[in-house]
Amino acid sequence: MAVPLFGAISAVAVPVASAQPALSGPATEFTVLAKDVQSIGTAQQAIRAAGGTVLETNTAVGLIKASAPATGFAERVNANRAVFGAAKERVIGTAPKDGSPKTKPDAVEKEGAGAAAAPKAAAKKAQPIKTDPLDSQLWGQQAVRADLAHTVQRGDKRVKVGIIDTGVDGSHPDIAPNFDLADSRNFTKDIPTDVNGTVVDGPCEFRGCVDPADHDDNGHGTHVAGTIGAALNGFGVSGVAPNVTLVNVRAGQDSGFFFLQPTIDALTYAGDAGIDVVNMSFYTDPWLYNCTANPADSAAEQAEQRTIIEATSRALNYAYRKGVTSVVALGNQHTDLGAPQPDTTSPDYPSTSTHPRTIDNATCLNLPVEGPHTIGVSAFGPSQAKADYSNYGTEQISVSAPGGFFRDGFGTPWYRTLQNEILSTYPKNVGVAAGNIDADGNITPAGTTAGIQKATAADGRVGYYQWLQGTSMATPHATGVAALIVSQYGKPSHGGFGLSPDAVQRVLEGSASKIACPVPRTVDYLKEGRDATFTATCVGDPSFNGFYGHGAVDAYSAVTHGSQYLK
Q1: Which whole-number Å values give the CA distances from 216 to 1, 167, 431, in the listed order?
Q2: Cβ atoms of 176 and 292 closer than 8 Å
Q3: Is residue 434 helix, strand or coil?
């Protein structure tokens, strides 16, 4: 899963000092949040008066990107009452010490390299309805009854699904038929290293360090996109909503970090571009939990987190008002979000910044999932058991979906097999960089061990597929069902086509398949090899509980019986 501010920011509304601090240090990018959208002009003037240069302005929420010397600027600009907060983002123009990009932890729960294949005798039978060649391996699609839903509704091209992620490989043969390059955007710029010289994204692949809007150098976003809307075209795999339009609204770095400015720009763009549903399988870096006044954090860090909370809330509200349904991963920290455990991973950027913090649930938020108007999704495995890694809890969960559970099926031949995870689309360039695919397009021994699969069409088109698990993989199943709901019940409006986010959520939750808490309610994963921190207790009843929310998303029920929830 699945984040950017980046350094220090000063407290809000600091009284004007008699002498302004001196400016020094290399040119650095800052993110400045205006007090409100009416104060944008005054905040821009404050930036210039403080010695900075305005680079970009998101007028929807009042977030301004500026360039200024590293030291002294934040203190100067925060003295102006038109500014809510400012944060140092990154030094401009640093070069990598080496070419090894850092991978952000917890983007997905990575297990299974070298895992045994499931026994052939247990392979699933081909479905008696139209499917693609690899669909028999997609237990998640069958669990949400997408195959049955496709006999009624496969998605409407007018419905646009935004993938706010690391990018989407628009050239993949299973993505290309549904991919909208014209509406796709990349709001990120590659970060070769952080301020300490630690490699982040590594060397830039394209001039200007900005990847094209149909490119993915991580693989996470392309995997998500395939689960949502891979074409039902007789090739590879099919998605939950195989006829909808897929739009890359990139906010994630190659390394998997999601910083504030790109995520805000992506959300507000989704609203302006007429996106119907967005998938957000991430949390906003560098803080796993953004706290308003955690005593373990410095005053500057506290102010930074308040800025993230305010800007994210504004952006989510803006997207909601524009008709965007926001579907968000609950997270992979095996934590009850209503009773968070100590945070030992924040801030995760820049390097060497992390310090332990006790988390107060009343004043700390995991974003964007704990922001306004979000649909939080937990993950379960093939047996419908809550995945060991999945966050849970009645406070934020909405629904559950198949996310993969490598250790599911303890005591059976399926235990610790890749087939317990989720198979979806994989960019060739990522496979080559990882050593899973060779220069000629063949799967290497390492790729075979990792379970990489290759599909070749009669016309020579080639697509690759990989297994992953995480709430990042559960969320696109729910997003796909949401897209089918808009397709089935949406109406023309103001020159477009869509359905209100509230209506989508009512149908998604109301049509979900109810799942009761396990007996006993407390589940440990000790026999699966996890420690006691993974032990979880399910609270609630079959209609709503902390493991499954309102239930497992059900595509067939949603498109055949969802109208009752629109009344």
Answers
A1: 15, 4, 11
A2: no
A3: coil
Please tell me the number of Cα atoms within 13 Å of 142 on its side-chain side: 21
Q: Which tokens sit at 363?
A: 């004043």
For residue 60, give the CATH number of its domain.
Answer: 3.30.70.80
- Looking at residue 14, what is its pLDDT? 38
- pLDDT at res. 130: 80
Looking at the structure, do residues 83 and 124 belong to the same domain, yes or no? no
Distances in whole angstroms, Cα of residue 5 to Cα of each of 96, 178, 238, 304: 20, 33, 37, 7
| Residue ranges with strand state E in 427-508 | 453-456, 462-468, 491-493, 496-498
**What residues contact residue 261 under an 8 Å CB cut-off, 6+ apart?**
4, 31, 56, 58, 63, 65, 89, 187
Q: Determine how many CB atoms are found less than 10 A away from the CB of residue 136.
A: 16
Q: Where are the alpha helices (DSSP H) in 63-157?
A: 73-78, 139-143, 146-149
Name the domain boundary from 43, 74, 91.
91
Q: Which of 91, 111, 132 is the last residue of a domain?
A: 91
In a domain, 397, yes or no: yes
Q: What is the pLDDT of residues 453-503, one digit of tens each?
A: 999 998 999 999 999 999 999 999 999 999 999 999 999 977 789 999 999
Q: Could you say which DSSP state residue 38 is in?
A: G
As a whole number, the mean pLDDT across the chain is: 91
Same-domain status, 42 and 131: no
Is 149 part of a structural domain of the chain?
Answer: yes
Give the Å distances, CA to CA, from 391 to 46, 263, 396.
42, 22, 10
d(CA 259, CA 63): 13
Residues 87 and 151 grouped into a single domain: no
CA 356 to mean position of chain CA atoms = 24
Structural domain includes residue 519: no
Structural domain including 419 reads 120-511+524-565
pTM: 0.93
- Positions of the chain with pLDDT lower than 70, given as ranges: 1-18, 90-107, 113-128
What is the model's pLDDT at position 112?
Answer: 75
Return the closest-CA partner of residue 202 out of 192, 213, 216: 192
| Same domain membership, residue 176 and residue 82 | no
Q: What six digits make up the tokens of 372?
A: 């306004």
Residue with tokens 């038929």: 177
User: Residue 10: inside a domain, yes or no?
Assistant: no
d(CA 498, CA 158): 8
Joined together, the tokens standing for residue 332 give 């992979």
- Residues whose CB is less than 8 angstroms from the CB of residue 512 and which lie 6 or more positions away in sequence, other chains included: 399, 400, 549, 550, 551, 552, 553, 554, 557
**Strands ordered across the beta sheet of 160-164:** 185-186, 245-250, 160-164, 277-280, 325-329, 374-380, 397-402
| Same-domain check for residues 202 and 155 | yes
Q: Are residues 337 and 431 in the same domain?
A: yes
Question: Same domain for 73 and 177?
Answer: no
Is there a contact between 275 and 497 (Cβ–Cβ < 8 Å)? no
Q: How many domains does the structure of the chain reveal?
A: 2
421 in the same domain as 482:
yes
Per-residue tokens: 70? 């590293």
Element holding 523 (H helix, E strand): strand 522-523
Question: Which CATH number belongs to the domain containing residue 544 in this structure?
Answer: 3.40.50.200
Q: Helix, strand, coil % (nearest 5) of the chain?
A: 25, 20, 55
